[in-house]
Model the fold of this input.
Amino acid sequence: MIDIQQLRHEYNQGYRDFSGISLHNIDLKQSHLSGVNFSQCDLSGADLSGADLSRSDLISANLTDADLTKVDLSGSKLMGANFIGADLSEASLVGANLSQADLRMANLEGADLRGTNLSGVIVSGANFSNANLTAACLDETELDEADHDGANLCHLRTPVVNGANNKTHRWVSWGAH
Done:
């Protein structure tokens, strides 16, 4: 396990690859860690509120019960990450790739998910209230299992499968904006 001072020192020295380490319950709120590699890290219970993690790699990271309020994860790779019970309210996830992520019971109220890849995401019990899902891709995602009251679903892309072989689709946009 690495402590916060060592992590910040190494980051400031240009080191970005912290993959696979345990950062359980670490306090990184308001940290500027753009472009960091936290893939396969244990960030469960971490406080990342207000942090800049834009263009970062968190593939298969464990963010269970993490505080990610107002975090900037725009352009980040979050494929297969575990966000069960995490608070992502008012987070910026613009253009991020969350394919195959687990968002069960996560709070994404007011989050900005414009152009985000949410393909195959598990959203059971997640809160997308007042989130902006404009032009998000939800291929193989069951959004009806989540609360999305007041969410902006304009130009949301979901596939409509044609034929018995399920191989041909056309994209449908929700909303008229």
Notes: Residues 160-177 have pLDDT under 50 and may be disordered. The domain at 1-177 is CATH 2.160.20.80 (Pectate Lyase C-like). The helical segments are 4-12. Residues 4-12 form the longest helix (9 residues).
